[in-house]
Hints:
Helix content: 10-25%
Radius of gyration: 17 Å
Mean pLDDT: 92
Order of helices and strands: EEEEHHEHEHEHEEEEEEHHEEH
Shape: globular
CATH class: Alpha Beta
Number of strands: 15
Structural class: alpha+beta
CATH topology: Metallo-beta-lactamase, Chain A
Low-confidence stretches: none
Number of domains: 1
CATH superfamily: Ribonuclease Z/Hydroxyacylglutathione hydrolase-like
Amino acid sequence: MTIHLINCFTCNARFPSRLQTGTLCLLIEADDGLILVDTGPGLHDYAKIPPILRMFQIATKVPLDIEETAKRQVVRLGFRPEDVRHIVLTHMHFDHCGGLPDFPDATIHVHEDEYRAFLGRPRRWTDLAYVRRHIAHDPRFVFYSECGDEWSGLPAIPLPLSNEMWMIPLFGHSRGHCGVAISTTSGWLFHVADAAPLGLEEEMPTWLTTLVLGPHTPRLSQFKAEHPEIRLTTSHMLLDFFTHRTVAELFGPAQSP
């Protein structure tokens, strides 16, 4: 199984300027077709920029390169957009699900609390990152909720896909935010999405991390230290990260526990 690491949205901080990041989406060549974990913004977001993206342009340096859209990158990798059969969403903020209309035939997997937050009235400022038109094409959804299972000691929900994957509830950044754990040929990959800035903790004060990302950074930092055999990624990685094209290229053989 090949997992491609694609940057679907470059967003650079104005201060500190060294924080130049891309938005990590995972394109998985699975046994029954392609699986995309998050989409980044979509083609329509470039044609008609939503207000939240306008705010990002003011607060950060956003190149807005349409070639970063997941659809364009899927094609450049030699696939057809319709080859993407499943999309697993960590959450439904614009920079994670804006590309849904570019894959209208895909089945969308998301926690039911996240979907309700997407459709409901805003309760906190991060809810402003929901853009309702991203599901105007009426995609096919599969919803999940807690079921009492565990993965590596964390509450987890199994995904009914051909390759073993788990949805890990990590609520905080949004009301239904989840990480995704993926079994690969070289061990487990745990994508914590926007639950923690792993590797960048020193760049952000604790109060800001908690305000923006939620309460999980200490727990996930400890999990990373206790499980060297599990590879962890986050949604907003430094641009240097994307010089690696696949999980195998980035990580190589898994470490022993």
